[in-house]
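User: Hi! Is it possible to get a structure for several chains at once, not just one? Here's what I have:
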Amino acid sequence: MEFTFDNNIPIYIQLLEYMKIYLISGVFKSGEKLPSVREFSNTFKVNPNTMQKALAELESMNLIYTERTNGKYVTKDEKLIEKLKDEYAITLAKSYFQGMKRIGLGKADSIKYLERIDE
Amino acid sequence: MSNMKLLEIKCLNKSFNTKEILKDVNLSISSGKIVGLLGKNGAGKTTLIKLINDLLTPTSGEILINGKKIGVETKKVVSYLPERTYLNKQMKVSEVIEYFKDFYKDFDAEKAKKLLKDLDLDIEEHLSKMSKGMQEKVQLVLVMSRKADLYILDEPLGGVDPATRDYILDTILSNFNENASVIISTHLISDIERILDEVIFIDKGEIILQSDADKLRNKEKASIDEIFRRMFKC
Amino acid sequence: MLNKLLKYDLKYMIKNMAIFYILSIFFAITTRILFNMEQSVIINIIGQISVGCMFAMIINTLINTIMRSWVRFRDSLYKDESYLTHTLPVTKNDLYNSKFIQTLIFFFISFIVVLISLFIAYYSKENWLAITNYVKTITTGLNMSTSFFITMAIIIIFLEVFNAIQCGFLGIILGNKMNNGKIGYSVLFGFITYLVAQSLILGLVFVYGLFDSSIMELFKTATINIDVEAFKVLAILSSLLYIMIIFIMSILCKKELNKGVNVE
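Assistant: Yes, the chains can be modeled jointly so their relative placement is included. Here is the combined structure:
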C-alpha cells in the first residue's frame, strides 16, 4: 500500500495521524501488541528514526505503552481511544461545516446534504 | 556507549592552486542516521565526499571516522558509491562480486546476487556490454551489499527511472541499522527528503546549515525542497 | 592484501598480453617451418611475411609491456578506476608494490618470450656459432668468456629497461600532482627522472673509479685495450647500481604516493 506524505509537513506528524486513525478504527485494538518500529517503517516506507519519533509521541499521549522486553502495545484504556475518536470526529465535522459555510450553506442545509448522501 | 562520532570533520579546507573549494568545514554525524548533503552543482559536495574517501588530500584540517584518521582501518568500514562508473570494464559482474568479496570482509555476496536478480541484471554479463545505467545499478548493489558503518552515496538517483528510484530508496531504508549511517548527496531533494533524518546545506564550499529534517520543516513550515529553493534562489 | 592486489594485476596483464605472446611464438614457429621447407619464390615470400610478422609481434610485445605498465599504473591510481583502488582497505605501499611486482614479472616474461621466439625462429648450430664468433671478436680482445658477456649484456639490458619503466612510474606520480597538463608533466618528469638516474649511475661509477684506477681508465681511453677485469667489474658494478637505483626509486615513489593523491 502506498502512503503519501506531504513534504511540507514534518513527516513524524503525518505518521502520527496515520497511527491515530489506525487506533481509532480498531486496526490495532486496545491492548494489542504492535509491530516493531522496523516493520512499521518498512510499511510506511519512512526512516525508522522518524517512525520512532511518531511512536514516542503516541506514547507521550498515553495511547501506547512500552513493555520493556516485549515491545509496544496499544493502551488498555478504551475510554482514551474513545476520546480520541470523539476529538477526531469533531475535527472532521468542523471542517465539513467550514467548507459548506465557504459556499454559503449554513448548518441546517449542511445536515440536509448529509442525509442526502448514500452511505 | 562512547560519545565518539561516526564521522567528524574539523576545520577542513581544500584549495586547488589559489581556488578555494571548501572553506573551514566543520560537521559531525552520529550513527544510525540518514543524512542528506544538499547543495547546488559545484557547491563542494563531491569534493567533500572525495576528501572523506581519500581521493583528495586536505589543504588543512582533519577528517576522522570512528575517531581514526583516514586510512586502511577507516576504508574497511566505509562503502562509497561515486557518481561515475569506476569498475574495470573488462570484468564480468560475477568477477566483480569475487573482487569485492576478496577485499571486503563485510561484503555479502548472496545479498548482492539477490539484489542484482531483482534488478534484472545478468551476473555473467561483461560490464563493457552494459549500458551506463545498468553499470550504475551494479555499483549501487555492490555498495549496499556491504555491512559498512558509513555509506556515502553520491547522486544515487540521478538518471534513474522512477521505479528503480523507489527500489533504491527501499534498499537504503531496509539496509538501515542504528550502528551505521548513510550520507546521500543529491540535488534531487523532493524525491529523497522523506527518508532523511538530518539535512546539511552546503553552498560555495561552506556549510550553511545542519539540522534535523522534521525540526526544519516545523520551523520553516515548508518542505526541505522549498526551503532549499528559498535559500538558494538565483 | 598484497597477494590479492597482485592477483588482479597479474590477471589483467595476462588477459592483455597473452595474445602477443601467442602470436610471437606462433610466427616464430611458422618462420622456422617455412625456412626449413623447400625454397620457392612463393615460400620465400610467405617466409618473409612470417619473419615480418614475428618481429612485429616481438616489438609489439616489448612496447606493449612497457606502455601498458605505465597506462595501467596511471589508470588505476589516477583515473576512474582509482575511485575503487583508493577506497580499498589497502596501504598505498601495497598498491605500489603490487604494480612493481606485476611489472617485473611481466617484463621478465615478455623478455623470455622474445628470446624464445628468436630462438625458435633462428637457432641452429651454424647461427649460434656465427653469433659466438662475433661476440668472440669483442671478448677475445678482453679475454672474457662469451657466456659471461652475453649473460651480463642480457642482465644489464633488462635492468636498464626496468629502471626506465620505474622512472615512468615516478614521472606519473609527480605529473599527477600538477593541476593541469598532467600527461605532459608526467612525461617530462619521467624523462627527467630517467636522466637523473642515468647520471647518478654514471656518477657513482666515476666515484668508484676514483678508488679503482682500472675503471678510471674506461673514462679516459677510447680504445678497447682495456683490462678485462675492469670490464667485469664495470658490468657487475653497473648491475648492482641499477638494482640500487631501482630500489631507491621505488621507495621514493611510495613516499610520494603516501603524501596523498588528488584524483579528478
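Chain B has a mean pLDDT of 92. Chain B touches chain A through 25 residues (CB under 8 Å).

User: Great, thank you!
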